[in-house]
Amino acid sequence: MVEPVSLGQFEQLVLTAIVSLGDNAYGVTIHARVEDLVKPRTVKLGAVYATLDRLEDKGLIASWLSEPTKERGGRAKRHYQLEKPGERALKESVQASQRICDVIEQSWGAKWKPAR
Amino acid sequence: METGALSAPPRLLERLVFHAFPPAVREAVAGDLCELYKSPLQYLRSAAGALPFVIASQIRRIANLPVLIMQGCIIFLLLGGVSESARATTLAGNVALTCLLLFLFLMIGVYRAGVVPSAKWAILEALIVAAGVLAFARGVMTSLHTSHKLSSDQPAWLLFLWVILPFGMPLLGGLRAAMVLAREHQCNPFMSRMSAPEIAVAYDDFAMRIRRRNRIDMALLLALVVLSVLLLAFLPAHRAALGLTILYPVSAAYLFLHGAARPRAEKENFSTLRAFCRREILRQGQLRSFLLWLLPAPFAPLFLAEASVSVTLAGIALAFAFFLIWAADRERDAHLCSLTESLSQMQERRTA
Prior knowledge:
The structure holds two protein chains of two kinds.
Chain A (H helix, E strand, L loop, with lengths): L8 H13 L5 H11 L7 H13 L3 E5 L12 E5 L1 H25 L8
Antiparallel strand pairs in A: 1-2
Helix pairs in contact in A: 1-2
Chain B lengths: L10 H10 L2 H13 L4 H23 L2 H14 L9 H25 L6 H28 L8 H30 L8 E2 L1 H39 L4 H6 L2 H12 L11 H25 L14 H37 L1 E2 L4
Helix pairs in contact in B: 1-2, 2-3, 3-5, 4-5, 4-11, 6-7, 6-12, 7-12, 8-10, 8-11, 11-12
C-alpha cells in the first residue's frame, strides 16, 4: 500500500502547470502558467522554485538540465516532469476538490457556480 | 517562451546575479532571469525577489538537524560552555555566538553544495581552519601557562611547544591533502550518457557498497562503545559523557534497520531512476555526515567538568579531532556533489 501524499494548494498549481506544459516545463514557463491559473493574483518566481525543490524532494517530480541555449545567455534550462507518485497525488487532490464542489453544490443549490 | 528575450542583461550585472545565487541552482535560475530580462532594474528586482526563496529552499535541502545540534553543542562547549565561572551575560553571548556561527555554517553549506572544490581552494580552506585550531590550542595552553597550572618543564607544555606548534600546520595540511587525493581516486559510476538498465546496474553496485560500508560502520560503532568506556575510565569522566556513549549502539541499530540503500522499483524509466538515485545518494550522504560528527560526541561533555589541566588538554585533542572530522565531511560532501552533478547532467542513451 503506497502512502498517500497530501498536496498544498500551491503544490497542486505547480503540478498542474507541469502537466499542462509537457516537455516545455521549466522555471519561466511553469511560473507563467501558475500565474495564469491564479489570475488576478501574482506569484513570485522564487516561490515557484522553492515549491519545485520541495516537490522534487518528495519524489513527485524529476528534473534534469538541458543543453545551454544562446537566448538564455548560454545557460541551461532545468526541465521538470511528473513522476508516478506525483500523478497519483494530483489525481487524489483533484478528486478531493471535485467532492468539495459536489458538497457545496448540494448545500448551496444549483445556482452556485464556481467562478472560472 | 524564449522569444520574449528582447535583449540580454549587461555582462557585469549578469555575472553579479549569477554569483549571488547558490551554485546548485544558479545555472537554471540565471538562465530564467536572463530570459525574463526587460531592463536592468527589472532584472535586479526579479533576482532580489527570488534570492531569499532560493536560499531558504537550499537551507531546507542541506540542513541536517542532528548534525547541526551536535555542531552547536561542540561550538558552545568550545566557547566556554556552562562552566561554573561563566556569568549569565557570558552564557547569553555564547548562545548568540553559537547561533550566529551555525547560521554562517549553513550559508557556507548552501554556497558550497553543488560545487566540487578545486585542490587549490581545498588547501587554502584547510590552512585557514588549521590555523584556527592551532590558535585555539595556543590560546588555551598560554592561559594555562600564565595561570601557573602548567609549568614549563611539564611534558604537555614541551610537547605543545616543540611538536604541535611547529609541526601542527604541516601535519594538518598534509592530512587534508591526503584526503583530497583519496577523494580524487574514488570512482564515479555515473557517466554522461547512460541507459536506464545501466543506471540500474550502477545503483545496485552503489547499494552493495553501502551494505558493506554499513557492516563496517556497525562493527566500528560497537567497538567504540567499549573503547570510549575504557578511555573515559582513565579520564576524569563526566557522567553525561558516559551516558552519551549510548548514541553509538543506537546509531548502529539505526544503521541496521534503515541504513541500507532503498530497493529500486523494477522496470523504471530513465528519469525516474535518475531522480531515485539522486535522492538515495543524498540520504546516504546525510547519514554518513551524522555518523562522522557523532564520533566525538561522548567526549564533548568533558568540557563540562572543572577545567583541570588534563581536561583542557583533552579539549585541545578534541579540537584537532574536529578538524579531521570537518575535513573528512568536506571530502565526503565533494564526492557526493560529483555524483549528483553527474546524475543531473546525464543524458539518456537509448538501447536498441
